[in-house]
Design goal:
The complex is a heterodimer of chains A (about 325) and B (about 260). Chain A is α/β, with parallel strands linked by helices. Chain A folds into two domains: about 40-235, P-loop containing nucleotide triphosphate hydrolases (Rossmann fold, 3-Layer(aba) Sandwich), CATH 3.40.50.300; about 240-300, Alpha-Beta Plaits (2-Layer Sandwich). Chain A has helices at about 65-70, 115-120, 130-135, 150-165, 180-195, 210-215, 235-240, 255, 280-290, 305-314, and strands at about 10, 25-35, 40-50, 55, 80-85, 100, 170-175, 200-205, 220-225, 225-230, 245-250, 260-270, 270-275, 295-300. In chain A, the strands form three sheets. Chain A has a six-stranded mixed β-sheet with strand order 6-7-8-4-9-10, sandwiched between helices. A four-stranded antiparallel β-sheet of chain A has the order 12-13-11-14. Chain A has a three-stranded antiparallel β-sheet with strand order 3-2-5, covered by helices on one side. Chain A is elongated, with a radius of gyration of 23 Å. The two termini of chain A are about 45 Å apart. The model of chain A is unreliable at about 1-20 (pLDDT under 50). In chain B, helix 1 packs across helix 5 (about 105-135) and helix 9 packs antiparallel against helix 10 (about 235-260). Classes of the chains: A alpha/beta (about 325), B mainly alpha (about 260). At the A-B interface, strand 1 and helix 2 of A face strand 1, helix 1 and helix 4 of B. Strand 1 of chain A pairs antiparallel with strand 1 of chain B.
């Protein structure tokens, strides 16, 4: 995507480059944020490196939206500090290089898509051309429609378009695909990948694990305002040990449970599901003992299982 | 901060860039108010409809001139209270205001757009009323009177914009229309928007000078020689005082909620 050019990023000369450490484009440092009695974020630290796509993953109420709102300067932390592009995000200048898609955003129904884009473009000193925004957000054909007359997916795409109007270096997407059908969701994934390919830094929150798996370089799992763990999607998946062997067999479940590294045996309709660390060895043993064994499948744990296991631990 | 960070050069807020934001913000705010039928039909429609009913039926009388001035005040108050008070309160509830706050839009541009658009509605209403008075109302209106009436309406938009702003920070979106009507209807009645204050019950006449709408009505009525006897300066001062108090209160409440957020 040649037209989505990145702004030149200047490392601040005063901050003193630390050998081996990546530069931070945005971060929360030991941030605590409370709403009355509830602690939304509890001594939470987090940073974004230029060019990466990071997913904040967590159940409802984990503190994902609070983190985004802090990074956008919409709220102030009770303790700790928030820095975006070397500044406090509450200062309007820091926001000229940021784009955002918020969870509860309803745009006035009576403005046209092209008018909304025109309005948002004028807020930024170096905006993308309007036709570029329309092309990237796939809004061709309904530029002149009123926002209120759009379908759910088209509305989300318009909001995505508003997020990229300023040709931002850093894009925050708070549950961008909430309420979208699978087709629109995949279309939006392509748009996020295009942003990433153009060198933008993207932070998105989601409760669709599939989405984190499909898009993120790095996943940060949070729950109750604290980081549970972070890593690449496959690293997160590996946190839950063992693979699942599903097959139709006459072997006794009690016998299977006694095999080395087997952690769980479950009946699933006509088949058995065996969870084991050394899946190959277990399968070899099962095939040797049961020549009638059929319908064999070996599954890696889904990110979903990893996520449930991780967030239920604490 | 310990790790090295990325900082961008401070973008210079040049005058043309900021002026463009104000211009676009005002333009789209006005378009939006116009296309929001619930707003534009009632704010424009009520004073015009009432003039057709009560102004035209009193044609060739002083009352046809009176209502031209007083319904113009009604236009100012309803455009500002509904346009700004309900407008901001609804946009906050919908998340549109927050999305704008996450952008580099200057807050003042948002506020200015609301005030200018509401004042534009007040202007349209007054021009329509003058046109109706001259034609169907059979009234004599000089050009000077027309310009002075419009001037009073534009000046009057400021205190009621401040009141709208105060309402927007105090009242949640779903109860805003009801609360605004509760404030606006009795106030407009007690201030002589509907009939001269001299025919109202005595206790209401005593109460009227406490209302900002009374001072606006007196300024507008003085243009056509229908004001209560007395100097006009205290009315200007009262409206200026109301403006300061309401803007100040809105500012304090807004900053408090910001600090808590």
């Amino acid at each position: 995507m040649a037209t989505l050019h990145a702004h030149p990023l200047h490392a601040s000369p005063t901050s003193g480059a630390w050998p081996g450490s990546d530069p931070t484009i945005a971060g929360l440092h030991s941030v605590t944020k409370k709403y009355g009695q509830t602690t939304a974020l509890d001594n939470f630290s987090f940073r974004l490196v230029p060019g990466e796509v990071v997913t904040l993953l967590g159940p409802n109420g984990a503190g994902k939206t609070t983190a985004i709102r802090l990074l956008l300067g919409l709220i102030a932390p009770d303790a700790g500090s928030v820095r975006v592009l070397g500044r406090d995000p509450r200062d309007a200048d820091a926001r000229t290089h940021i784009g955002a898609m918020l969870q509860v955003a309803r745009v006035p129904d009576v403005l046209r898509v092209s008018e909304l884009i025109d309005l948002f473009r004028c807020y930024y000193p170096q905006p993308l051309a309007a036709r570029e925004v329309i092309r990237i957000a796939k809004l061709e054909g309904f530029e002149n429609r009123l926002f209120g007359k759009l379908s759910g997916g088209q509305k989300q795409r318009t909001l995505f378009g508003l997020a990229i109007c300023g040709n931002p270096d850093l894009v925050f997407l708070d549950e961008p695909t909430a309420g979208m059908d699978i087709e629109s969701r995949r279309a939006l994934w392509d748009e996020v990948r295009a942003l990433s390919a153009a060198g933008k830094t993207v932070l998105l929150t989601t409760h669709y694990l599939e989405e984190a798996d499909a898009l993120a370089n790095r996943v940060v799992v949070i729950n109750r305002g604290k980081t549970v763990c972070e890593g690449t999607p496959s690293e997160i998946r590996r946190r839950v040990s063992g693979r699942r062997i599903r097959c139709v067999t006459q072997l006794d479940p009690v016998f299977l449970a006694a095999l080395p590294t087997v952690s769980d045996v479950k009946q699933d309709r006509e088949a058995l599901v065996v969870t084991a660390e050394a899946a190959e060895d277990v399968v070899r043993e099962m095939l040797r003992r049961d020549p009638t064994l059929s319908g064999l499948e070996i599954l890696s744990p889904a990110l979903e299982d990893a996520f449930l296991a991780l967030t239920s631990q604490n | 901060m310990s790790a090295n960070t990325i900082a961008l050069p401070v973008p210079q807020s040049t005058f043309p860039y900021v002026a463009r934001i104000f211009a676009k913000e005002i333009r789209y705010e006005f378009v939006k108010m116009m296309r929001t039928r619930a707003f534009s039909l009632s704010v424009l429609g009520f004073p015009i409809m009432f003039y057709l009913l009560f102004g035209v039926s009193n044609r060739h009388t002083e009352f046809a001139r009176y209502l031209m001035a007083s319904y113009g005040c009604m236009g100012v108050v309803s455009a500002c209270l509904f346009g700004i008070g309900m407008g901001i309160s609804m946009e906050r509830a919908q998340g549109w205001l927050e999305l704008k706050q996450a952008s580099p839009m200057p807050r003042l541009a948002y506020l200015a757009a609301k005030i200018v658009s509401s004042a534009a509605f007040a202007l349209i209403i007054e021009v329509a009323l003058i046109g109706l008075a001259l034609t169907l109302g059979g009234a004599h209106v000089t050009l000077m009177e027309s310009l002075r009436l419009i001037g009073v309406d534009l000046f009057g938009s400021v205190p009621f914009a401040a009141m709208g702003l105060l309402i927007s920070v105090l009242v949640p979106a779903n109860s805003a229309p009801g609360i605004i009507n509760l404030i606006y209807l009795p106030m407009s009645f007690a201030s002589g928007f509907w009939m001269p204050i001299s025919v109202l019950p005595h206790w209401l006449q005593r109460l009227a000078p406490a209302l900002p709408t009374y001072h606006l009505a007196q300024l507008a009525l003085s243009v056509i020689g229908a004001a209560e006897p007395g100097r006009m300066m205290p009315h200007f001062q009262a409206l200026a005082g109301y403006t300061l108090v309401m803007f100040g209160a809105a500012w304090i409440i807004f900053n408090r909620s910001e600090a808590k957020a």
